[in-house]
Amino acid sequence: MKAKELAQLLGVSPATVSLVLNNKPGISDSLRASLLGKIRDLGCGNMIRCQEGCDPKDDAALSAARSGRPQVVLYLIYTGLEDPSHWEFAFFPQVLRGAGAEARENGWELVVLHMDPSGGDLSSLSAYADRAVGVIAQVSRADQVDLHRMRALGLPVVFVDTYRREKEASSVCVNNEQGMFRVVEYLKEKGHRRIGYVYGCETDSMDERRGCFCRALVELGLLDSLQKENEFFFPEDCDSPWETLEQSFRSTAHLPTALVCENDNAALHALRALKAVGLRVPEDVSLVGFDNRPLCSLTDPPLTSVKNDPDLMGRACVLLLQDLRRLMRLNTTPSLKMELPTQLVERQSVRDLT
Q1: What is the mean pLDDT of each run of 10 residues along the chain (354 residues)?
Q2: Residue 262 in contact with residue 58, Cβ under 8 Å?
Q3: 37, 91, 172, 206 — which has fewest CB within 10 A?
Q4: What distance separates the 2 farthest-apart alpha carbons in the chain?
């Protein structure tokens, strides 16, 4: 159908139809919206060009505009993760909320898809490929995702708080190095020299966080105070975390004066285990968490922790997808890592030894 014929059906001038089809200024938003709806109802959505300001080489944007359906951001959740702690303390739901808010502000929809961690069928992603902005993947380890098959769909992929250099995967992460360095520096300022670490189920993010803690000890000259590098490293069993820690604390001849925990969940387990062996926080052992979940202000004593912003992380994932899309149109596919800042929140779980 020609634009002139469409104008006659709509009862407006050909010039007005041209402004609508080409997303040009000159008519009111209400009239534009009304005419766009009528054009789609007539089955002429393929005549509508890309939304104003979008790259004409952006196939997904063109496909979405012509179909009359919005572009989508796919949020892929790998179910059955080994470490449920982030879900228990509302980390990932807040990431999801931030991603949804940022997507809506760009005129996109957020579509949440669930997949088995073994890889599974990507056909559910394929159904949206023609109008998808990209994929946000939430998974404990990047190697659980068949990245190559995702890339075969022609979509950029951003991982949530997990990063593996060898996988060439882009990610938005917590700045673990900044957070851990500030924690160790803070404890050193408080007079602590024997600082231990509590960790649980292994994920990419937690592996990196533990490495950052070790590097902070070295940089701040505290590693020499340990008889051996792992003397004060306390793993917790995923099935019985506080019981495992309780046994470790009982069997350790000289506990550290302070414990840094990989997240607030581990700190809660450590607090319970310390009390079980008759030790007080912070009088006997100081305790610091990471993530600053709401539980930190409810523990006894309230827990010092490292604050990050999961809502901002979700928004940043969508923003990074936009950058990757632009780079893909320039025929390059780099791996980008965006790190979000942290802040130490001091409460009553650390004793000043100076």
Answers
A1: 80 85 76 78 63 48 53 81 49 89 90 72 74 86 63 83 76 95 97 93 84 92 63 83 90 92 93 96 97 92 96 96 88 87 97 95
A2: no
A3: 37
A4: 90
Structure-derived torsion over alpha carbons of residues 30, 31, 37, 40, reported in degrees to the nearest 10 = -150
Annotation: CATH topology of 176-307: Rossmann fold (3.40.50)
CA 143-132-312 angle, to 5 degrees, is 70
Whether the upstream peptide bond of residue 301 has omega within 30° of 0, thus cis, is yes
Q: Which amino acid is at 133?
A: V
**Residue-wise pLDDT tens digits, 236-254:** 887 788 889 999 999 988 8
Residue (of 170, 174, 168, 164) closest to 142 by Cα position: 164
